[in-house]
Design the sequence.
């Protein structure tokens, strides 16, 4: 990777965040017909064939051989794949406690947790300004998410959803660091083949795990996802495309940088709400948006 390409993590992350929002919307629609587990599994089962297509295109265009694999790669891949599945399960469990806004605010602390885990497992050092940028953006997201409703839900639900939300954020952090570690552990190749190879291997493992689980414990959800193949194909493609750009970001910079920049989706959601839904931005929300933008601007400046 040359220095000239290092900035590509910025547009890659923004494309990934937009694709994730679209995929989540598609999955929510599928939840009504095939259930939560079935809709969750769609991103892996139907995303895997598209990831294979991406891999074929990347290697045909680059002319590179497949990267060399290692036990270190396998270890990081298992870490990333399994913790992502577990994090999704904990997130859904916490949201079933009727504490959606609490869980959202707590999971968005993920960049801070990624910075800590990445420093320990991968030696990703962000420096004082990088850490300050992450803290500013994360504080802004919590400020935007934390409403009177959030406080009411906390009082009603108690400590359990808070612990589940923090645990989900921690597992999402482990997942991001695990996938970045797997990309870096490949023994050869430039950033794009490494990223795509890791994506394919990760989706293959996740598809296998969830298919075995559904066959054993929830066959109706698996059959439902096969029955709704048209809608599932769209969600699978968008999910695989978003993941492809997430992994490009992970290949080029620390996972904490990628996840922090992705917080701008909160600002985008606020703009959409204001323009199309006549939502008035409160002083707290405006302050939170300011913190997010300040943190993102500082992050980009420090990594330039």
Sequence:
């Amino acid at each position: 990777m040359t220095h000239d390409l290092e900035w590509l993590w910025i547009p890659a992350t923004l494309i990934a965040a937009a694709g994730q929002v679209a995929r989540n919307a598609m999955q929510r629609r599928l939840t009504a017909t095939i259930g939560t587990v079935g809709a969750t599994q769609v991103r892996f089962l139907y995303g895997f064939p598209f990831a294979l297509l991406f891999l074929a295109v990347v290697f045909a265009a680059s002319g590179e051989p497949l990267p060399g694999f290692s036990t270190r790669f396998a270890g990081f891949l298992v870490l990333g794949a399994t913790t992502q599945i577990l994090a999704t399960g904990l997130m859904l469990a916490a949201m079933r406690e009727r504490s959606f806004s609490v869980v959202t605010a707590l999971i968005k602390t993920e960049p801070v947790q990624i910075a800590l885990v990445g420093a320990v497992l991968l030696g990703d050092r962000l420096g004082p300004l990088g850490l300050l940028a992450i803290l500013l953006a994360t504080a802004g997201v919590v400020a935007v998410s934390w409403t009177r409703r959030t406080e009411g839900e906390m009082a009603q639900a108690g400590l359990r959803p808070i612990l589940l939300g923090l645990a989900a954020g921690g597992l999402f952090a482990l997942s991001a660091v695990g996938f970045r570690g797997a990309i870096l552990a490949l023994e050869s190749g430039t950033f794009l083949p490494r990223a795509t190879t890791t994506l394919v291997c990760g989706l293959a493992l996740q598809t296998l795990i969830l298919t075995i689980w559904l066959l054993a414990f929830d066959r109706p959800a698996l059959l439902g996802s096969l029955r709704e193949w048209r809608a599932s194909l769209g969600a699978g493609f968008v999910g695989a495309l978003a993941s492809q750009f997430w992994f490009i970001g992970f290949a080029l910079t620390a996972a904490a940088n990628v996840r922090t920049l992705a917080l701008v989706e909160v600002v985008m959601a606020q703009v959409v709400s204001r323009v199309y839904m006549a939502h008035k931005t409160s002083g707290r929300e405006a302050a939170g948006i300011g913190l997010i933008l300040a943190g993102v601007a500082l992050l980009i400046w420090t990594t330039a």
